[in-house]
Amino acid sequence: MKLIVVKDRQEGGQKGYNVFQSAYDNGAKVFGLATGSTPITTYEAISASDMDFTQMTSVNLDEYVGLAADHPQSYHYFMQEHLFNQKPFAHSYVPDGTNPDAVAETARYDQIIADNPIDLQILGLGQNGHIGFNEPGTDPELTTHKVALTESTIKANARFFDNESEVPRYAYSMGIASILKSQHILLEAYGEEKAAAVKAMVEGPITTDVPASFLQNHADVTVIVDEAAASKLSR
Ligand SMILES: N[C@@H]1[C@@H](O)[C@H](O)[C@@H](COP(=O)(O)O)O[C@@H]1O
Predict the structure, then answer these.
(1) If both were cysteines, with which of 40, 167, 168, 216 could 64 make a disulfide (CB 3.0 to 4.6 Å apart)?
(2) Ligand 1 test: best mutation among 40, 60, 130, 223, most atoms within 8 Å of CB?
């Protein structure tokens, strides 16, 4: 893993943008995208740039089950707001949270990823070490699957909803195996509340207890963290 420690998420966003720019300059055509507060500064830097994605494809990591694309807390909506309105792609794929047939939806999404191999995947990091919605205990061999969110993730994500009871209990998520197929991976993490997960991801054993630890098995991962998120690393 290549570790880059920055002052704050503003500087991290600029570095994240640089990673996108170099993938873009090297011919990347398919960008794997993530939601959450973490990638926002990177999306802002991309939005302010002259990068053109109108011939490119994006594939998002995950979506809440039960939320339609026009729901303000859906990941479809998030992407529209934070990136696609400013930088449209030729094709943008996000799992369909309104499809009640999990088998059909996850198979459909796996096919999309097979047809559009991801050149660069951006990731955030859950406080419990999750990536996408791959919670601790997830079988690393899984591709896209339906996930029951853990209590800690429901609590962490409740800040985006009016109250905790409105947070969906399930999501469709790319699996760890899907993520590891990406050619290059960029993970960003900011804030003290991510410090334990960052340490476990970078320095801990590779274990299903920390889904992000499987990134140690990937040959081309860039990790951008601020000082607070890096504070538990033994450097
Ligand atoms: N499914 C998303 C993850 O992809 C994201 O990394 C995580 C962290 O969110 P934040 O970046 O807001 O800390 O939240 C959600 O659970």
Answers:
(1) 168
(2) 130
Nearest to 28 by CA among 11, 46, 13, 44: 46
CA 62, CA 40: separation in Å to the nearest integer?
Answer: 16
Give me the helix-helix angle, 40-47 and 9-25, nearest 10°.
Answer: 60
What average pLDDT does range 78-106 have in this prediction?
98
- Which token pair is 194? 């991510």
Tokens of 146: 């339906």
Q: What is the pLDDT of residues 24-35, one digit of tens each?
A: 999 999 999 999
Does ipTM come in above 0.90?
A: yes
Query: Which pTM does this prediction carry?
Result: 0.96
Q: Where are the domains of the chain?
A: 2-226
Helices within 50-100 (DSSP H only): 75-79
The one-letter amino acid at 186: L
The arrangement of secondary structure in 2-226, i.e. its CATH architecture, is 3-Layer(aba) Sandwich (3.40)
